[in-house]
Description:
Layout: E1 2-7, E2 12-20, H1 25-37, E3 42-53, H2 55-70, E4 74-78, H3 82-91, H4 94-97, E5 109-113, E6 116-122, E7 129-134, H5 137-142, E8 150-153, E9 158-165, E10 177-182, E11 185-188, E12 198-201, E13 209-219, E14 224-229, E15 238-239, H6 240-251, E16 255-266, E17 269-272, H7 290-293, E18 294-296, E19 305-314, E20 326-327, E21 335-344, H8 355-364, E22 370-374, E23 388-403
Parallel strand pairs: 2-3, 3-4, 7-23
Antiparallel strand pairs: 1-2, 5-6, 6-14, 7-13, 8-13, 9-10, 9-13, 10-11, 11-12, 14-23, 15-23, 16-19, 16-23, 17-18, 17-22, 19-21, 20-21, 21-22
Amino acid sequence: xxxxxxxxxxxxxxxxxxxxxxxxxxxxxxxxxxxxxxxxxxxxxxxxxxxxxxxxxxxxxxxxxxxxxxxxxxxxxxxxxxxxxxxxxxxxxxxxxxxxxxxxxxxxxxxxxxxxxxxxxxxxxxxxxxxxxxxxxxxxxxxxxxxxxxxxxxxxxxxxxxxxxxxxxxxxxxxxxxxxxxxxxxxxxxxxxxxxxxxxxxxxxxxxxxxxxxxxxxxxxxxxxxxxxxxxxxxxxxxxxxxxxxxxxxxxxxxxxxxxxxxxxxxxxxxxxxxxxxxxxxxxxxxxxxxxxxxxxxxxxxxxxxxxxxxxxxxxxxxxxxxxxxxxxxxxxxxxxxxxxxxxxxxxxxxxxxxxxxxxxxxxxxxxxxxxxxxxxxxxxxxxxxxxxxxxxxxxxxxxxxxxxxxx
Length: 408
């Protein structure tokens, strides 16, 4: 079989010539998969050169029809001859694959930043999230963390990042690790020897809680959603820090809360190996002991994955907020605190996304690989840079921080 590709105005085309049988079906599947990973959601198969299709070929068409439907895209067939059409009709595929066109998305404002294209959807333009600081990050640096931490709510409208754990009082002290919560989906990386992230979902009247040793939280409705596509940028990706910088500038924020769900080309960060409550006055950052406390990504890790990223960023944070943040860019103009949960690759739907079902769908899959505190490694020779994203969605809103107990 011969497989050739072409790009139409609003679709990616594959023209097949030969037998679509068990020998060639995997090759056709690989070609469709590559197009999907390249960001294409409207894929057209020209079967005018195909004179035979077996059940193996039909299975490939079924598989990628479902994949693209989930991603709010379409797989459509053109040019099928009488023999192929008969098989498609008997299999039930003809009704769903012949000349299907997706419904148009609502209009969104388009703009560009350093080669990355954006579509902007307004959600709640006057929304400002109420932020809270929890605990003392300087105690972590000094190895002086103790106790069970503060209880924080993990509802549908909460964004939380920090060192936390799930469980009732008296059971969390040995498990504090990286935690994030967004859209009712909360994930935590235990430090009790388990290598599997745990998750909690906010469902109906059930609103989970976590113990937070230190971290940041905010509550409220996001004001905007940005869909971004970085395939035309210089590297074909967008770094987390320029993406956040673009969002901050676009929104005019001095401080902002962010959730990103995206297809990633590499995640850079660190995970705790032991609960900080076991530090006994010795800083986890002291050398060489740091190797027993933290696992760093020493090279670009988690290629071709999907990530949920939650966190906060600020320009010129005040003295109370500054200890919770780290520089996001080499100039130090922007500081932030971001965690990421990493999942196996799956194509994200195009157009405007709903945060809650998207985040909960990923978390409830039970396939999270890890939860990391995201870092930027700018070392001159050995540095591996920062988390790179290909395409996805950013939910954002300005946030105003205060300390003390959470609002009811």
